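Weekly modeling sync, notes
Attendees: S.R. (lead), two postdocs, one rotation student

Agenda item 3: backlog of single-chain predictions. S.R. asked that every request posted to the team notebook include the full sequence so nobody has to chase files. The rotation student volunteered to paste the first one in as an example of the format we agreed on. Action items at the bottom.

Example entry:
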Amino acid sequence: MRIRVAAIIIVPLVVAAACGGSTTKQSHTPAATPAPVSAEAFKAAAQKAIDASMIAAGDFPAGWNSSPQNSSNDSDVKFSPPCEIFNSEEDYPNSVASTKSLNFDGQNHEEISSDGAVFATADIAQQEQKKYEDALAQCHDEMVRIFTEIFQRELADQGATGIHVAFDDLPFHAYGDWTHAYRVSFTVDLPRGQVSGKIDSVAMRSARVVGNLTFADFGGLDPRIHDGLADIFADRLAKAEASLPQ
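Predicted structure, as returned to the notebook:
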């Protein structure tokens, strides 16, 4: 998973979902074993499922606009060891299929986007999740450095004289098999006054399906939109998993 300024991936809450069966003894016909699918068929199903999981224009109230997410790397600033995992040009290494939504902009300078991927097995998805979590656990100071440098570069022509960045875990509702959220908070001193904001990143996993929501907010984002989109997104990821061939 790659870190982006306007689209950031990743609160450590692991929730295992289990379905219990009845203990009542009864005669039944065993369910037929599904026929295996080819790698090509699985990839096509995975792409269709993850594409359908992304947030869309219909999820927003009137007044929101959309534009394509920037597909290029945000910065030539590179993470130092042991955080090189975030330098990857791929958002989801080792995935079968991946995608991202449009970027949605509100009337108060809010920005919201989503991205996600499907892995061949839940074990592979969990392994990639663990790599990401292990790197984050070691990279707090590096995250602060990277975001500070990027803000300095992007705001240099606006006369920024002071940039203060904090990177913290963000408690969040637990979804699916895994939920992890963090917040980048920042204040910037400009000639016209101080500007502050935050970027929340919420990652979720439902077995083989992983997705991420990113919220950039300068104080105008309605909490109902924030929490409502998380509920919608988690439900879609679960449905995507259920739709995949076994």
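Discussion: group reviewed the output briefly. The two ends are 25 Å apart (CA to CA).
Action items: rotation student to repeat for the remaining queue; S.R. to check formatting next week.
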